[in-house]
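If you are new to this repository, start here. Below is one unmodified record pulled from the training split, so you can see the exact layout before writing a loader.
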Amino acid sequence: MKLDQTKKTISDYESQGYLVGRVEGFASVRATVSRDLWGIFDLIAVKPGAPPVAIQVTGAAGGHFAAHFRKMLSRTVPWRGQSLHVIQFLLSSGWDVRLEAWGFRTRKGERYLAHRSHHFTREDIEDFT
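And here is the target side for that same chain:
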């Protein structure tokens, strides 16, 4: 059974009342490498009364979570002649920023779906720098 982590994340957030939009794209119809929003995000989720959520989705196996965690914290983009730290800017703008990871695990011969999630805070940025 193949797992589509993005579809699973969309389903999870929609079940919580969010409207979810996919913001990653591909350079061309035949491209196999995606382009994430600001080089990080796959999804944006919004719901009345809650801050908007920027979401990076990955697999849970082989260090993907840790690699994406570091990538997200280190990502900057040029803005008004400066280097803008994306996560810091979104957090200070009232957004939630999350990393969601899904993958199958096996325990005692039983296969199950594992989920790991991280909700970024200003402390993550301070600890990383």
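Two things worth knowing about this chain: DSSP finds four helices and nine strands in the chain. The chain has a mean pLDDT of 88.
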